Structure formats: C-alpha cells, structure tokens
Amino acid sequence: MRKRIAVIGGGIAGLAAAVRLRDLHPSGTDIVVYERSSAPGGKLQTGELGGRRVERGAESFLNSGSDGAGSAAVALVQRLGLGDALVHPAGRPAALALGGRLAPIPGGTLVGVPGDLSALDGVARPAGGADVDRGVPLLAPGADVAVGALVRERYGDEVVDRLVDPMLGGVYAGRADRLSLRVTMPQLAFTAETEHTLAGAVRAAQARGRRTPGRPVFAAVDGGMSRLVGAAVSASGARLVLGLPVRELSRTPEGRWKLIFGSAPAPRVDEVDAVILAVPAKPAARLLGAAGAEIAALEYASVALAALALPPGTMLPDLSGFLVPPGEGTLVKAATFFTTKWPHLAQGPGPVVVRVSLGRAGEEERLQLDDASLLAVARRELGELIGAALPEPAESWVQRWGGGLPQYAPGHADRVARLRAGLPEGLAVAGAAFDGVGIPVCVASGERAADDVSKFLEGNR
C-alpha cells in the first residue's frame, strides 16, 4: 500500500523535512505539505525595492556548523543544486549605536559574550574581579539559566546591556535576562559544564567551533531566499495544500492519522501514515492536545522590517550595519546597509537600500502605527543614529512579523525533550518553536523529524 506522509507547516523546517523524506522515499510515497498561508516559505520571502531584490525576512544563514564544516543550510542549498549560487557579504564591519556614536563591535565575542575583557575598551566596563575560579564549573550538567543572569554575575551589567542584549536582540528581538542560555548559545552552555570561568567557557566554545580560515561567517542565495524555497518545493515532489489550516489531528482505530483542515463551515479530511508538525508553538500545542502542554506557554516577539530605497549616491557609514542596545530607547533595534553588505545586489545603477528592524519583545504596542508612520519613525531614528538626516526614499515597504520570534525561557530544551518523549510513533515535531531560530537550525530540525518518521514507517511495512 502506498504510504502518505503529512508535513504540517510549509516554512523552511517543513520544506527541509519534505526534501529529506523524498530522498529517503524516492518512490512509492506521497508527501503532502499543508500550509495555512497562500505560499510556502514562512519567513523566507524575497521582495523587490527599486529594482533590487531585498529580503522581507531572513537575509542570510550561518555558513559553518558547530564542527567548522558547512552548516545544514549550506548542505541543503548544495543538495538542491544551488551551490554555485551561494554568495557572501562584503568584509565590512558592524557597529553598536552607543550614546550618539557608532562604535565597532568588539571582535572575539560569542553572541556578544567576550572571551577577552580587554577588547571592550570604549564599549562596556566589565565588573572587576567577578569572573574568578570558584573551584566548580559554571553550570551543572544539563542545567540552564538565562543568558543575562550568567553574564551579569561574571561580567557586570554594562556588558549585558551594551553588548549582549543588542546581539541577542538582533537575532531574537528578546532580552538576555529572559532567554535560555542552552537554546540561544548551546556551545557556551556545553563548555560551561566543565569550565570554571566565563572567559574560559567562551574561549573553549570558540575553539570547539573554530571555522575554516577564510571561510565567510554568513551566506545567502543569489536570487533570494524565495529561490531556495522554490527549489525545495520542487525537489520534494510534495503536493502543496495552501491557504487551508489544519484544525484537528487525531489517531484512527487503524493507527493512521486523521487531519481535518480548511474552513470550519466546510472542513476537509485526509488520512496519512505519519505526520511532521512544523508550525509555531500555539497551533502545535492545539493540534497535540495534552501532549502539547510543554510548548503551549512559549511566548513570541513581534517585529517589523522597513526597507528604504534612498537616492543613488546617498552617503552612509562604511559599515554593513549596526545594532542598537535597548537602553538607547529607539524603536529601531538594528539596521542593515543592504547594498553595502551584499555586493551582488549593488551591481548596476539603482538606489542605496537600507533595511531597518523595529521592535523588541514586550514592545508590541510601539509597533501599532500605520505603515507611513512606521516608515517615518524608521527614517528619523536611523538618521539620528548615524548622525545625518536621510533623504526621502524613492520607494519603501514595511513587512510585519506579528508573533514572529520565539522567546525561549530557561528550561525550554528540557520541556521540548519531555514533549518528544511523550509523542506517539509516527508523529514528529520540528522548527523554531522546538529547536531554535536560524535557517540551519530549522533545516536540521526538519531533517531530524523526517528521519524519525521514516524509521517508524520502515518498521511498519
């Protein structure tokens, strides 16, 4: 009998799962991807501005994995035949906006946590003598703490407020005092189980993840992330069911899975042999029922992206962009000088493109402006932060990601482990709600889920 596998969620985790499933089951298996929106890709969306491609979501991914080899995202790109389309940012530094000036981000940090405090001159004053060897490791095996709690204790408040917070804010739109060390910095959590000082743990983590000399930190796909999405859909051979949310998931007496999807007045029904659930926490918890209690309370931050096409020749600092500590009080939390950072986008005549990220966890009410007002705030604050008023953009757009970024509280990894341990065979979960943000993490999460359900199917032939 021909097997059918459902992938609920068409973001990059779900699509990576579908590709892996097709590799494991090249024939004789139907793969169906259910995506509640009108298009696959989730937060991977490429737009256009002033004739240039500009990402409306994630703009890049880590080029290397924790072992120094290519990341899971790079491996997927190569698997899809897009290896020749990998591009890398220009070698421009990034900065921190501190009190009306742009200060270079110190080198040698791990998501803002330094291994050498002497490198922080002019950026933050570390607490003197706090990071001492107390004769025991920083963390007990498997323990978790908030990033801010550990760094404040060892390095003091300024290092967190002026360096770690903006770095984490750029990725998670969250605050160090509320984010799990084990999820956001797993390599540091690992070395903290053996090292007695934070500086030692950072250096040990950096040594374990030492990348190949000369290998760029980040990569993207020429043609945009939507090109990656399209290639994944094609390679998976999956049937897409778009615009119809899955509302219920239950087990049949025969051991299959029943899906009810579509509108409530006119529901549709499918039956499949295995399910991969790759959706955010709240819909996942609803579909999982009692088993989803471990993930139901995961909070999310809302953010907005504003892209500005400035007149050709507009002068900007010679940077890839900058991050803004929360203490600066701006709605802008980060900016990318897109056409400076990505040389392949700046070819030929065209505008100078800047992309601005606005909003942090707990600031949702500050984003409740119409697009024109939000763009005005972005342009004004950006000019104030770089010290020069910006001209009117020729074109612009706003992309809102309501509830877009998970806020992993300490203990998240343990909660997810308990959830997975309680799932029935033939059902797997994947994606940012469970394993962390970033394209490589989501790709690896989706592939792991595909492996799990495939083992189940192989054992039930």
Automatic annotation (TrEMBL):
Residues 12-453 form the Amine oxidase domain. Its EC number is 1.3.3.15. Its cofactor is FAD. The keyword Cytoplasm applies. It is an enzyme of class 1 (oxidoreductase). InterPro entries: Amino_oxidase, FAD/NAD-bd_sf, Protoporphyrinogen_oxidase, Zeta_carotene_desat/Oxidored. Its main location: cytoplasm. Gene3D superfamilies: FAD/NAD(P)-binding domain (3.50.50.60), protoporphyrinogen ix oxidase, domain 3 (1.10.3110.10), Protoporphyrinogen oxidase, mitochondrial, domain 2 (3.90.660.20). GO terms for molecular function: oxygen-dependent protoporphyrinogen oxidase activity. It is found in: Cytoplasm. Keywords: Cytoplasm, FAD, Flavoprotein, Heme biosynthesis, Oxidoreductase. It catalyses: coproporphyrinogen III + 3 O2 = coproporphyrin III + 3 H2O2. The keyword Oxidoreductase applies. Pathway: Porphyrin-containing compound metabolism; protoheme biosynthesis. Belongs to the protoporphyrinogen/coproporphyrinogen oxidase family. Coproporphyrinogen III oxidase subfamily. Involved in coproporphyrin-dependent heme b biosynthesis. Catalyzes the oxidation of coproporphyrinogen III to coproporphyrin III. This is Coproporphyrinogen III oxidase. The gene is hemG.
